[in-house]
Amino acid sequence: MDRATATQHHIALGRGDVGRYVLLPGDPGRVEVIARHFDDPRFVASNREYVTWTGTLDGVPVACTSTGIGCPSTAIAVEELAAIGADTFIRVGTSGAIQPDVATGDLAIVTGAIRDEGTSLHYLPPEFPAVADIDVTVALRAGAAKAGYPYRLGISQSKDSFYGQHAPDRSPMGPELHRRWAAWTAGGAICSEMEAAALYIVASTLRVRAGGLMLMFANLAGREQTPEDLANGDIERAVEATIAGLRILIATDQAAAAAPR
Amino acid sequence: MNDDVMHHIGLRPGDVGRYVLLPGDPGRCERIASRFDDPRFVVRNREYETWTGTLSGVPVAVTSTGIGCPSTAIAVEELQMCGADTFIRVGTAGGMQPGMQTGELAIVTAAIRDEGTTSHYLPMGFPAIADVDVVLALREAARRTGALAREGVSQSKDSFYGEIDPGRMPVRERLEERWQSFIQGGAICSEMEAAAIFIIASIQRTRAGGIMACVGNPDMTEAEATASMAGFDLDQVIDTAVEGLRVLIERDGAR
Asked: How far is residue B23's CA from residue B27's CA, in Å, rounded to a whole number?
């Protein structure tokens, strides 16, 4: 069976169901919320953790598919979406801030990811960088600026263990988890989440474009959550900035396609 | 002997400004500096030679790193202590994608850490990536100079002959298998310094990028690659790297 024409095994989509641009939240419950920012939002499919809605932005088909938590399910989503014609992926979601001077609600535009996970090793040796596409990154930067929220560009830690980060002392590997966290901090990583590395490495091998924009929750080491933290910790601002960035990317792609060669 | 002279590069704080070009070969520094206004030889020690000058009235420098990440890491560490915060590697590389032409420029967005130096700084898995604004400046520079250029990942290796002649290495199967996986992953060129520059710049919170003139492609035999170098010269990559600095200076000033 031709993989490109079949209904994909996990995401339950086939060719023609989505265009080139796909937003990738982790949570299936957020897909409809994000799709409400599209024109003509429409539910398409739901299977396992993969929910897909489509719509248009400035007349161009766009989609939103949830990946579930973690790199294993994310790699499957990207593989199957690419097989049916998608070539531009933007992860949108939440993350924990690594640097101490970040406030909850600041946005992270993820330029590269630490491969602190198992999935991407099935694709490329660990020395290979998990890097975002420059044009996607530049569009997301412009989108965040347009949406008017504080943002920074930088590296994300993509981990396989949520509680290994949030409660490292519960793990027998606690001392090593602490040492590695300190190294990521010193290296300048800005946020921690669980999907970007697989997205970027799989995208490199498939020659498709990927980027990511994540809302950060403040690193609360040594302090209590403030009312401002709670008020700003709404994914809506990340969605607004991402949608603005996607519109800019669509316009940039259209201008490039129209330019004389 | 003055205490504030850097141990290896022989420079003092204040000898260089923010912007530094980093070729591997000390013999190329003067040629690169000839594109600066008021080029001036500053110092030479070991493989480290430094020239300074100005572009658009702003101080710039060129310092050679020698071959490989070990000596490059020392240069970047000591240059930062002297006040530099923006590094552009300029040099040559092997082309890694089918169809690449000798002379095509590679603007390096990130590097494969296929070397031993950066593990002394950060655990494996941390990406060696270039600064986005440096990449964008080099993209604009290539547009201005009219150079054929592509953007992508570079393999930064520790063994030149492991790449050129893997068949005579005891670990040849590993070398050949990894080489194929890097090509399949989309790597565009192979050189020996970018990973260390990018990882150290991440830790320093400085900016780094790189532009390399490529030789050959994986489908060429060694003889074909050698033949393709007829007429190859470094002027275009040097001109584009210098133009990249000029673009960065313009954009930094506009901020």
From this structure: 9
CB A4 within 8 Å of CB A84: yes
CA A145 to CA B188: how far, in whole Å?
Answer: 32
CB contact at 8 A, A246 and A21:
yes
How buried is A136 (Cβ within 10 angstroms: 0-12 exposed, 13-18 middle, 19+ buried)? buried
For residue A149, pLDDT over 70 is answered with yes
Report the alpha-carbon distance of residue A219 to residue A231 in Å, rounded: 16
| B139 contact residues in A (CB cutoff 8 A) | 134
Closest Cα partner for A203 from A79, A113, A104? A79
The full set of domain ranges for chain A reads 21-256
Domain of B54 in residue numbering reads as 19-249
Q: How far is C-alpha B224 from the geometric centre of its chain's CA atoms?
A: 25
- The answer, yes or no, to whether ipTM is higher than 0.95 is no
Distance from CA of B109 to the nearest CA of A (A): 8
pLDDT for the residue A229: 78
Mutate to test the interface with B, among A111, A124, A127 (most CBs of B within 10 A): A127
- In this complex, the residue of B112, B114, B129 whose CB is nearest that of residue A111 is B129
Using one digit for the tens of pLDDT, what is the confidence trace for A80-139?
Answer: 999 999 999 999 999 999 999 999 999 999 999 999 999 999 999 999 999 999 999 999
* CA nearest to B151 within chain A: A134
Report CB contact under 8 Å: B112, A153.
no
Q: Is B189 domain-assigned? A: yes
Per the structure, how many domains does chain B have?
1
CATH architecture of A21-256: 3-Layer(aba) Sandwich (3.40)
Continuous H helices in A190-259: 196-206, 227-232, 236-258
Q: Which residues of A touch B111 (CB under 8 A)?
A: 129
Distance CA B101, CA B215 (A): 7
Nearest CA in chain B to A126: B125
**Measured between CB atoms, does B114 come within 8 Å of chain A?**
yes
pTM (2 d.p.): 0.90
Taking the Cβ of residue A16 and every Cβ of chain B, the question of whether any pair is shorter than 8 Å is answered with no
